[in-house]
Design a protein that fits this description.
- The protein has a single domain, classed as Peptide deformylase (Peptide Deformylase, Alpha-Beta Complex).
- It is built from four helices and nine strands, in the order E-H-E-E-E-E-E-E-E-H-H-E-H.
- The strands form three sheets. A five-stranded antiparallel sheet has the order 2-3-4-7-8, with helices on both faces. It has a two-stranded parallel sheet with strand order 1-9.
- Strand 5 and strand 6 form a beta hairpin.
- The chain is globular, with a radius of gyration of 16 Å.
- The two termini are about 25 Å apart.
- It comes from Pedobacter antarcticus 4BY.
- Its cofactor is Fe(2+).
- Belongs to the polypeptide deformylase family.
- Its EC number is 3.5.1.88.
């Protein structure tokens, strides 16, 4: 089932998320729904806060690489980044919660992450390149951070009107979204 993606400005995107346990209600269905949602929005990663849940869960699927080889696909539960290594490099990032904005973000090329998979097996993995970048982006979400937080003050000011428009719902996304204004109207 495709779920609405929470838009910039919603307080859930700023929360440091909570760990979950194996008894989390309908976890397998939630993970499946998150993949459906991510694929429908043409994303490569999706974190639980982006669908309104302040829990430490995110998914990644980078798809096939340029040589047609299978990409990197994982479920990350209760993830912790243990180490980031290397010289930071810039890459243009976007976010499903912040449609139509793409900016260069500096990140280290190697990351060591500890996490549980969907079968509750514990992993410690060193990732590099695109998988490392996507994991760092999604990990930021469960820590209450957005890629726009890394931008210079000047760049943030230049984007302010676009970000305000997103939070008000004055944006066209090709996927279902939930805007902070809509949430407030329901209360």
């Amino acid at each position: 089932m495709k779920l609405p993606i929470v838009a910039y400005g919603d307080p859930v995107l700023r929360k440091v998320c909570q760990d979950i346990n194996q008894d989390y209600p309908e976890l397998k269905k939630l993970i499946s729904d998150m993949f459906d949602t991510m694929y429908a929005a043409y994303g490569v990663g999706l974190a639980a806060p982006q669908i309104g849940l302040p829990i430490r869960l995110f998914i990644v699927d980078t798809g096939e690489d340029e040589d047609g080889k299978e990409g990197f696909k994982r479920v990350f539960i209760n993830a912790r980044i243990l180490e980031e290594k290397g010289e930071p490099w810039a890459f243009t990032e976007g976010c499903l919660s912040i449609p139509e904005i793409r900016e260069d973000v500096m990140r280290k090329p190697v990351v060591v992450v500890e996490y549980y998979d969907e079968n509750w097996e514990l992993h410690e993995e060193e990732l590099s390149g695109m998988p490392a970048r996507v994991v760092q982006h999604e990990y930021d979400h469960i820590e209450g951070k957005l890629f726009t937080d890394t931008l210079s003050l000047l760049r943030k000011r230049m984007l302010k009107s676009k970000l305000d428009a997103i939070s008000k719902g004055d944006i066209r996304a090709e996927y279902k979204m939930k805007f902070p204004q809509q949430r407030n109207k329901k209360r």
